[in-house]
Every structure is written in structure tokens, then in C-alpha cells.
Amino acid sequence: MVNQTLQIVKTRFLFPHHWRKGAIILIFLGIILAIVLICFYKQFTAWQTERSNSGLLDLEGIVESAVLLLLICGLLLFAFTKEEVEDEHLVQLRLDSLQWAVYSNYGLVIISILILNGSDLITVLGANVFTPLVIFILRFRWVVYQSNSLLEK
């Protein structure tokens, strides 16, 4: 009974495992939309400046917001979905990876502040939305892979 209670408390804020497929779809949609935006940026801005006097919506801003929302939601879901078998070892690996991601992210922020200034710094800090999630996912997946490799030997 105590072990079940501890297990529920440790994983109650994680999403169900089957949501991971949806997270991957959101990430791919965000990446594809970002590539489309980058490839057609000049045509987008030319079309937008022609239409700017007509009072239409800012299509480029809507697409940029959609890319950010898709990527953030996809990365959050992917990072914080349960594994098929969620045990205490994986909970500890998850915590260690999260701490590692926060430390390394703020290390990158400090380095960016020391090196960059002005609009470059704002751009880097804007990209900082994704950095902790990406670092966490990469670190956690790597540690789980290493742990599984050791178990197989």
C-alpha cells in the first residue's frame, strides 16, 4: 500500500504513455510548418506588405505563433509522458535529467549574457523557451538508453 502511494505521488503530474504519439505528431507538424515558413519567408513578407493596408490578419505572425505552440506543446508532452513501465529508477533518472537541464540552460543563458548584447541577446533568450525541454529530453533519453544497455549486458 505504501509503495503504491509513493508511486502515484511520483508520477501524478506525468501524462499517460499513449500521449507520446500525439506529442511526436505535434513536434513534426511544428518542424514542417517552421520549414515552410523559412522557405517561403520572402514571398510571405512581400504578400503581407501588399495586403497590410487592407486590414487583413497578420498571416506571418499567426504561422509563427502556430509553430511555437506546436513545438512547445509537443516537447512538453514528449518530455513528461510516462514510460511504459515507470519505476523508482526512472523517476530518479527523470529528476536528475531535469536538474541537469535547468543547470545547463542557465549556464547557456549566463554565457549568452556575457557574450551577446542587443537584439542578438533577445533572440537567444527567446529561443530559451525550448532549450530546457530539448536538453531534458536528450539527457533523459540518453540516460535511459545507457541504463537499458547496462541491464542487457
Structure description:
- Helix 2 (20-39) runs antiparallel to helix 4, helix 4 packs parallel to helix 7 and helix 5 packs across helix 7.
- The model has no long low-confidence stretch (mean pLDDT 81).
- It contains seven helices and no strands.
- It has helices at residues 2-11, 20-39, 41-51, 59-79, 88-115, 119-127, 131-152.
- The chain folds into two domains: 1-84; 87-153, no CATH class.
- The protein is mostly helical and 153 residues long.
- The chain crosses the membrane at residues 22-41, 62-80, 100-117, 124-144.
- Keywords: Membrane, Transmembrane, Transmembrane helix.
Detail the topology: elements first, then pairings.
Blueprint: H1 2-11, H2 20-39, H3 41-51, H4 59-79, H5 88-115, H6 119-127, H7 131-152
Keywords: Membrane, Transmembrane, Transmembrane helix
Transmembrane segments: 22-41, 62-80, 100-117, 124-144
Short description:
This protein is mainly α and 153 residues long. 79% of the residues lie in helices and 0% in strands.
Low-confidence stretches: none
Number of DSSP strands? 0
- Approximate helicity band: over 70%
Distance between the termini: 33 Å
The chain-level mean pLDDT equals 81
Proportion of β residues?
A: under 5%
How does the overall form come out from the CA principal axes?
globular
Transmembrane segments: 22-41, 62-80, 100-117, 124-144
Keywords: Membrane, Transmembrane, Transmembrane helix
Jot down its keywords.
2 domains, globular, transmembrane, membrane, 153 residues, single chain, 0% strand, transmembrane helix, mainly alpha
